[in-house]
Specification:
The protein is an all-beta fold. The chain has a single domain, classed as Methylamine Dehydrogenase, Chain H (7 Propeller). About 0% of the residues lie in helices and about 55% in strands. The protein is built from no helices and 30 strands. A 4-stranded antiparallel β-sheet has the order 5-4-1-30, with no helix packed on it. Strands 6-7-8-9 form a 4-stranded antiparallel β-sheet, with no helix packed on it. The protein starts with 6 loop residues before the first strand and ends with a strand.
């Protein structure tokens, strides 16, 4: 390999079939690409078919069976299959091999419909979990990950399943709960779940309980896990919280609101053991929000240095750039950049911080932008074609 190259491996999830109505796609499943950060070149390596892997989570996890694979750590890829509840959605667990191919080792049914997000996390007790948010049925499902069983990773402990209840003001998008993502905050040891239908972010503590059962004078200790609701973060009516990301130090959380395109900033207070809302900001000159506003904001990312926030907007096919002011704890809108594609559902900043890649669901393209590290501004380098119905981008960790 040319030593001047800076190679990173990117996995792309896509819709392979229609979910409902005309929503869905005709992609290849999970595609693996080689990305050269020295040139911005993206090259397809291989495809792995799975039905509607619309969200991926990749993690290096230590386990006692690591000698069975070529990595010192076992590298797992978790993928949801986003389909309606009536079609029995699942979560797949793969091991990523040394040649970047995927080996399917486990499949579990998800009790819910349209699981649109999956997230691996490890709490302060050292327990591994994956959490999935189900849009159709408005519930959160949390599985425990058994790292001692490399070929049956999601163990048979009954998953945690929490159904959200309620509604908000949008006449069609907020008639009931729509859990949209679940992300773990390493600083607070809490799991935050965005619910678009409720205009809420629910905060859970995932903890171990030992169920003591006595049978024939013998006590059996059965380990179980619970998710206990600790706080509800309420956002402006009609916002539609969709995704959340944190800065590198987990000092601030940035919530992307799908319907209004705004970003809400939260900060965890250890003293109060709760999150505080610092404000909600947008790039629309604070125009009044109509009851049926739906701007289609999709993804949010923060630069490695925490200075810049990027969001994707499906309504006008743009990436918005904000500068974060840590003194005022506010966002300043800078610019919007056309993505040169249709429906920018997901995007990512590469591990070098030099590039921003945008996946377009409806134009079968990925656009590649260079990133100015000084001011955060973007410049289009290239648009790669024939990447069908791409909706999720996930980097292989080093």
């Amino acid at each position: 390999m040319n030593s001047s190259k800076q190679i990173h491996i990117l996995y792309v999830g896509s819709y392979t079939e229609i979910v409902a109505g005309d929503f869905g796609g005709y992609g290849e499943g999970i595609s693996c690409f080689e990305f050269d950060a020295s040139t911005g070149n993206l090259k397809l390596i291989k495809n792995e078919f799975q039905v509607n892997p619309s969200y991926l989570s990749i993690a290096n996890i230590l386990n006692s069976n690591s000698i069975e694979v070529d990595y010192k750590l076992t590298t797992y890829l978790f993928a949801v299959s986003e389909i309606l509840a009536s079609k029995k959605p699942v979560v797949h667990t793969y091991i990523i091999n040394h040649n970047y191919s995927l080996r399917l080792i486990d499949t579990k049914t998800i009790e819910g419909g349209c699981p649109c997000h999956i997230h691996y996390f490890k709490n302060t007790d050292g327990q591994n979990f994956i959490a999935s948010a189900c849009y159709e049925t408005g519930n959160l499902v949390i599985y425990t990950v058994d790292v001692e069983k490399i070929d049956n990773t999601i163990n048979n402990i009954e998953p945690i399943n929490i159904y959200h209840k309620g509604s908000s003001q949008h006449p069609s998008r907020q008639t009931h709960a729509h859990a949209h993502c679940a992300c773990f905050d390493k600083k607070s040891n809490k799991l935050l779940v965005c619910d678009l239908g409720l205009d809420q972010v629910k905060v859970y503590s995932v903890q171990k309980n030992i169920d003591h059962k006595t049978k024939n004078n013998n006590t059996e200790n059965k380990i179980k896990f619970d998710a206990v609701e600790k706080q509800i973060i309420t956002l402006p009516a009609g916002s539609g919280p969709r995704h959340i990301c944190f800065d590198e130090n987990y000092t601030y959380g940035f919530i992307l609101n799908e319907l209004t395109g705004s970003v809400s900033i939260i900060k965890y207070s250890a003293e109060k053991n709760e999150y505080e809302i610092k404000g909600t900001f947008d790039g629309t000159a604070n125009k009044p929000v109509k009851i049926d506003t739906d701007l289609g904001a999709a993804a949010i990312r923060v630069s490695a240095d925490g200075k810049f926030i990027y969001t994707s907007m499906r309504s006008d096919n743009t990436i918005r750039l904000f500068a974060f002011d840590p003194i005022a704890e506010s966002l300043n809108y800078i610019a919007s950049y056309p993505t040169e594609g249709k429906t920018p559902r997901d995007f990512t900043i590469d591990p070098s911080g030099q590039w921003l890649l945008v996946a377009h669901q409806d134009s079968d393209t990925i656009s590649i932008f260079s990133v100015n590290s000084y001011n955060g501004k973007l410049s289009l380098l290239n648009t790669v074609e024939n990447i069908k119905s791409s909706v999720c981008l996930a980097w292989l960790p080093k």
